[in-house]
Design brief:
Blueprint (H helix, E strand, L loop, with lengths): L2 E5 L2 H21 L5 H15 L9 E8 L5 E9 L7 E9 L8 H15 L4 E4 L6 H9 L33
Parallel strand pairs: 4-5
Antiparallel strand pairs: 1-2, 2-3, 3-4
Helix pairs in contact: 1-2
The structure holds coenzyme A (COA).
Coenzyme A (COA) binds next to strand 4, helix 3 and helix 4.
């Protein structure tokens, strides 16, 4: 299988942007990093700062992932230079495969193409952030050779009942 990263129309970008902000805000709440009231505001701010000129933002690439043999648009990838990070690092800000195309290898193939793009841009490394509850994405990145560089941890005190030695009644971390 082969994929290409193809430029988006303004309409496609706007629709991706709205959905990406919404989903990332929901992930932020799920991870316990923000409450619902502030998550949307915080993520909108981050996206606006990272993509101030939308599709025309310098050194940011928001592209449709297209199956090279069928021409189908199967997802979206956003990568680019990350502010405040070393210049030899390409940051993968978003990888999203449409639900109906998941589990078919598009994520893996897109990461392979991203490595080519990174080399063409003169980058030595690719960095990314993944939420702790997103086990599927973590498996994808691990299979592709990514290793954890920072780990944030938290313990949910409301998920544990009783005193020391009693049985745990809920999972501390949600499953995907
Ligand atoms: C994470 C995501 C990009 C993976 O894309 P994909 O096209 O399904 O990935 P692949 O088909 O290449 O599968 C890659 C790995 O994912 C895992 N995987 C695939 N299907 C899975 C499933 N149904 N359940 C759990 N893990 C699965 C496997 O480990 C697989 O590797 P393997 O085939 O060697 O076992 C996709 O699920 C997605 O878009 N999720 C929502 C957005 C998201 O979470 N993006 C990542 C943000 S950091």
């Amino acid at each position: 299988m082969n994929v290409d990263f193809v430029e988006m129309t303004k309409g496609e970008y706007d629709s991706w942007y709205r959905s990406a902000v919404k989903h990332t805000a929901a992930d932020l709440v799920r991870a316990g990093n923000a409450d619902e009231e502030h998550a949307l505001e915080s993520i909108s701010k981050q996206f606006n700062e990272a993509l101030p000129k939308g599709l025309d933002t310098p050194e940011q690439y928001v592209r449709s992932i297209v199956d090279a043999s069928t021409g189908q648009k199967v997802g979206v990838i956003w990568y680019g230079t990350a502010r405040g990070r070393p210049p030899d690092l390409l940051f993968l800000s978003e990888l999203w495969v449409k639900e109906e195309f998941r589990g078919k290898g598009y994520g893996t193939t897109s990461l392979a193409l991203l490595e080519e793009k990174a080399r063409q841009l003169g980058k030595a490394r690719i960095g990314l952030h993944v939420f702790g509850h997103n086990l599927r994405a973590q498996k994808l990145y691990q299979s592709a050779g990514y290793v954890a560089t920072n780990i944030s941890m938290a313990k949910n005190l409301q998920s544990w009942h009783g005193a020391k030695g009693e049985r745990r009644t809920e999972r501390a971390l949600p499953e995907v």
